[in-house]
Design a protein that fits this description.
- The complex is a heterodimer of chains A (267) and B (291).
- Chain A is an alpha+beta fold and 267 residues long.
- Chain A starts with a strand and ends in a 10-residue tail after the last helix.
- Chain A has 2 domains: 2-176, Jelly Rolls; 191-257, no CATH class.
- In chain A, strands 1, 2, 3, 4, 5, 6, 7, 8, 9, 10, 11, 12, 13 and 14 form a 14-stranded mixed beta sheet that branches.
- Chain A has helices at 155-160, 191-198, 202-212, 219-227, 236-239, 248-257; strands spanning 2-4, 7-10, 22-24, 31-34, 40-43, 48-53, 61-76, 81-85, 90-103, 106-119, 129-134, 138-141, 148-150, 184-188.
- In chain B, 20% of the residues are buried.
- Chain B has helices at 3-68, 78-89, 114-125, 158-161, 169-175, 199-250, 267-290, and strands spanning 97-102, 132-138, 141-151, 188-197.
- The two termini of chain B are 45 Å apart.
- In chain B, a hairpin with a 2-residue loop joins strand 2 and strand 3.
- Chain B folds into 2 domains: 3-207, no CATH class; 255-291, no CATH class.
- In chain B, helix 1 runs antiparallel to helix 2 (78-89), helix 1 (3-68) packs antiparallel against helix 6 (199-250) and helix 6 (199-250) packs parallel to helix 7.
- Chain B is rod-shaped, with a radius of gyration of 39 Å.
- The longest helix of chain B is centred in the N-terminal third of the chain and has 66 residues, at 3-68.
- Chain B has a 4-stranded antiparallel beta sheet.
- Classes of the chains: A alpha+beta (267), B alpha+beta (291).
Chain lengths: 267, 291
Amino acid sequence: MLVRGVTRYALAEGVRLQSGDIVEVGDKGLAQIEFSDGAALALGPGTRMLAVSMPRDKATGGNYYVTRGALKVARVQRDARLRLVTPVFTLQPTEGIAVALVSDGEGSVFVESGETRLDGPPAKGAATALARLKGGEFFTLKSGQKGTVAPRPSPAFIGALPRAFLDPLPSRMARYKERQVQPRQIELVTYAEVEAWLKAPPDIRRPLVKRFQPRASDPAFRSALVANLRFHPEWDPVLYPEKYEKPEADAAGAARSDPAPAAPVRR
Amino acid sequence: MKLIVKFNLVFIVVFLLGLAAAGFVSNQILQKNARDEIVLNARLVMESALAARAYTSTQVGPLLQTQMKYNFLPQSIPSYSAVEIFNGLRKSFPEYAYKEATLNPTNPRDRANDWEADIVHQFRNTLDLPEAVGERDTPGGKSFYIARPIQIKSEACLPCHSTVDAAPKTMVDKYGPANGFGWKMNEIIGAQIVSVPTEVPIARANRAFQTFMVSLTAVFAFIFIALNLMLWYMVIRPVTRLSKFANQVSQGENMDAPDFVVESSDEIGVLTQSFNRMKKSLVQAMKMLDA
């Protein structure tokens, strides 16, 4: 599934991703993002990913937020600017091939070859370096524990990987270089379909308020927002703008003393 | 002694001599052919194993390289695939045994035992020796073997067998760092050995020999019966009748009887015609004497 803007689309092979696209892979599906320089990012079954920003040039890059799932990034050229942010860690492969599993506050990374930098999740303030993994090394981080590096991936990790991740990622890009494929539009997103993103860490979910604001006029979407407001309080000004309107007199006085715009204030 | 008895005695003697000569020669040839066939089959097994090794090394191995970073897959190892393919062949040829006997193997099942190590050292000491063929005594009887050297001719072998550091970690996890390393390019590290009990080619040759001898005896028996029947109907029977008739004529009996009839133009027919003419001449001479 692809969410672009406030609309849900059916993904098809060859679709070009844009910044802000949300990709959700079905329980039996696989998706692969290929970059112009040959690098590839594969998403395993059940993976949820937000393309925060896409590369503007031909080099591999961009910021991607993954709430859960399995990732394999391959053929990364040296000094690529690819950043894969998860709730557990931030993965920055500088070269080679890396595989990661993320689920419920637990994450593991195995570097097949090359080198990958691991930082702490951005939600915890300034990124702290967790590890710099080399080919063959395995990192695992469990909730509330310190991350550990091992010389081999654990059997549990290997067993949890999609079968296709144990092989090299094939490239399909050449078939779509000259062809534009448009995703098939389905309908407007429901709250349930973007719930995970609206409840994501603040850095991720706050920019989404503006994007999904038009959906707040939908009664079902709005009632779900209201019911879950404690998970995303930044929606409060959208849902209840009257609470943030200042009396006209105060506003005029404030305008005289302070020329900067003051309302509405978003948290 | 009757003619047919003489004929049969000669025939049986000739038959026995022929059977013995044919048996001796055919037995020698069949034994040699059986052994040659075993050698040929053994060479086929070896060539199949070499082909399987090359295919695994050049095509299967590279495909499984990524998986080998997660799990050790013996299917990517040339010697493993060769042995596995041979194990499939053994279902049809259970008497054959195949081993890639290696002095310093990764997999302990490939380690050369004493007599195999001798063969490997023979190849290592005589680099241009392409093949060794021989027999050896075993608790189960004599065993025939054919062996060829395993020489490292491809760089593709070295990542797994040069140093522990260069080897796939999953392989080291499985087999440990002690064995199967230090191999060098062009080094003879072992020998392919196909062995088969000697009694197998002998039994095979004996089966063929028995079939041949029984067939030959059956053919001789058929010829014996056919010749006896022909001799009886074509020679002995008409000659016996002619002899009885001649005997009566010689005693003055049946002088007016019609001619003895034999409807053939062979020697017996000519003899009968001569006898009939002689009888006519005798009757005329007798009539002239009576007149």
